Amino acid sequence: xxxxxxxxxxxxxxxxxxxxxxxxxxxxxxxxxxxxxxxxxxxxxxxxxxxxxxxxxxxxxxxxxxxxxxxxxxxxxxxxxxxxxxxxxxxxxxxxxxxxxxxxxxxxxxxxxxxxxxxxxxxxxxxxxxxxxxxxxxxxxxxxxxxxxxxxxxxxxxxxxxxxxxxxxxxxxxxxxxxxxxxxxxxxxxxxxxxxxxxxxxxxxxxxxxxxxxxxxxxxxxxxxxxxxxxxxxxxxxxxxxxxxxxxxxxxxxxxxxxxxxxxxxxxxxxxxxxxxxxxxxxxxxxxxxxxxxxxxxxxxxxxxxxxxxxxxxxxxxxxxxxxxxxxxxxxxxxxxxxxxxxxxxxxxxxxxxxxxxxxxxxxxxxxxxxxxxxxxxxxxxxxxxxxxxxxxxxxxxxxxxxxxxxxxxxxxxxxxxxxxxxxxxxxxxxxxxxxxxxxxxxxxxxxxxxxxxxxxxxxxxxxxxxxxxxxxxxxxxxxxxxxxxxxxxxxxxxxxxxx
Length: 500
Ligand SMILES: Nc1ncnc2c1ncn2[C@@H]1O[C@H](COP(=O)(O)OP(=O)(O)OP(=O)(O)O)[C@@H](O)[C@H]1O
Ligand SMILES: [Mg+2]
Hints:
Elements: E1 6-15, E2 18-28, E3 33-37, H1 44-51, E4 59-64, E5 67-69, H2 74-79, E6 82-85, H3 97-102, H4 115-129, H5 144-157, E7 162-166, H6 174-189, E8 193-197, H7 201-207, E9 210-215, E10 218-224, H8 230-238, E11 256-264, E12 273-278, E13 282-287, H9 293-301, E14 308-313, E15 316-318, H10 323-328, E16 331-334, H11 338-341, H12 349-363, H13 370-383, H14 400-412, E17 418-422, H15 430-445, E18 449-453, H16 457-463, E19 466-471, E20 474-480, H17 486-499
Parallel strand pairs: 3-8, 3-9, 6-7, 7-8, 13-18, 13-19, 16-17, 17-18
Antiparallel strand pairs: 1-2, 1-4, 4-5, 9-10, 11-12, 11-14, 14-15, 19-20
Helix pairs in contact: 4-5, 12-13, 12-14
The chain binds adenosine-5'-triphosphate (ATP) and magnesium ion.
């Protein structure tokens, strides 16, 4: 067999308070898709950042085509054909799609740097990945999923030999995911080596030729193509079996807690939305990317105030034109774009978790019991398995999934009347997902009305007592627990397209 295109040998990396990588080995060959899996904080992102010249190992070596190389900067790695697409997207919001695709590339490769020419060069790439927007659109105006596709376009434009994707599908719709998989398979057929990080083990099984598992910063094992299956991966990831509990779903629905009438959102001002969620009810909000789910949740919480309509909480009218009013009315939102809306990155884990409840208590005039918060934070850190050197550590130093857990902990500990969640477990590993589902269910048992948007069908099916499906800004249908199937959801989410 030919030498691996890219190889890492005995890579170690220590951060203050965390040994992120402990003598890790990795090899990837031309024309191979290598999946890299492991729990939140296992070291996946750190490893690929080292391969792409963004972080530097304390010890160990990187080889390309069998020769030792120094990945001392991102341009060096790019020059050698190693491109990393980030877990936390890295685009320039104020530039348009074209500029982002070619950002940081040496202009002389294109001759005169002429925006029109770049636009022409961008067009086939955008078509290939199925990004449906003008290349002159500012990135700030794109959805999370569309931004992800721009990152992928950037990697394609660079003609990489090794393409590394850190959780690329976490904010893509099913259709976009299919497009991405097709692109990955084409690249593989062209001899590109792909390293693919994902917590969605179904995708890994579908796409990967080989799986490399990291646990606590060390190699935990490898699976050849024919050995790849869900339980095996989980066992290597966590070192034990996890029962993915599909317990009995109590179909409790108390009196109406959240009542929405004639709500008009800024994204789809022409449609009026009606919706009810009962106390203790868990309602899933399904739909394609851009169908209006996030806009609805943002309007209810006040981040993206509604243009009209009425909201009642426990029968009382609620006027919500900003998040403070949302919180005052007993509403909490775990937003889709955590980095911007969910966390204060420079602040510590505990501060972040207690932030919302502190504000809450202050607003209600109650007095703040610091000790109580400390205990509550400690409990959340344990329950959700938040991997952090300490409660004081700044959240910017946590892995992506662990940051996400902090945001969830913050809102779950508030015990709101109405809890809104937008893609609650994006980027979270399989074991912690179950724990989060339990916490959401525990809140519902205490009477919280829960409305969550998710693009993961498994999550919709697992957690929802009832599903509301959105399509192009309106509610296209509703499914009770008994009617709930993947096909039924899919039909309501897309039938406009089928009819067309
Ligand atoms: N800049 C940093 N400063 C301090 N610690 C860090 C830094 N980056 C990563 N770490 C720590 O290194 C460990 C590995 O993190 P890494 O981001 O590689 O995990 P991951 O496997 O990508 O997890 P996830 O699935 O949550 O994205 C974690 O304990 C994390 O807190
Ligand atoms: Mg990561």
